[in-house]
């Protein structure tokens, strides 16, 4: 594993979406592509080799095409589509959010027993549907952190009233894949501040009995 990693957070776009720049001696990657992150990265003089998408709701992919045009390879669970990005729904809301066309260079295959290696980092992938059907959490066990996208936030969970959402499915997947991680694991979500597994077990209102059950 790479001996050094620099992590910087960018927040941008209408939904105040987090994107994460990870710099290593073996290359650089971005987790999620909110609006404005491509220009922000370019202003820092950083070349992005890979973009990992936790899911493809429009607020997480508005700069995916720009990063790809600059030479990055895009990784996601599913191919891009109007339904996956929720562009159809946003138009119905009267909030057009045009996503520039992009292609997925590598489809992700979640398999905790066979981690993905990128830029000298080892990622375990967990498929956690319920907020979006293509939601993936990227866990770096050697660095005790995980990019949780819109699955689990500080004090909350991802909304489940969008197309493809399922409240029980999300809660069950969180319990199975995230709450079993070491308590000190740092969660880097798609919105809001970072947290830890321990903090969410202690204070998240969607948990009860110390993680032994979920609110209905």
Short description:
With 216 residues, the chain is α/β, with parallel strands linked by helices.
Low-confidence stretches: 210-216
What does the average pLDDT come to?
91
Note the total helix count. 6
Span from first to last CA?
A: 41 Å
**CATH superfamily, called what?**
Ribonuclease Z/Hydroxyacylglutathione hydrolase-like
CATH third-tier fold name: Metallo-beta-lactamase, Chain A
What is the SS-derived class?
alpha/beta
Shape category: globular
Q: What's the main sheet like?
A: 6 strands, mixed
Cα-atom radius of gyration: 16 Å
Q: How much of the sequence is in beta strands?
A: 25-35%
N to C succession of SSEs: EEEHEHEHHEEEEEEEHEEHEE
Output the strand order for the largest sheet: 1-2-3-4-5-6
Instruction: Give the total of domains.
Output: 1
Percent of residues in helices comes to 10-25%
Number of strands: 16
From the coordinates shown, what is the CATH architecture? 4-Layer Sandwich
Text of the CATH class: Alpha Beta
Q: Characteristics of this structure?
A:
216 residues; 6-stranded mixed beta sheet; 16 strands; globular
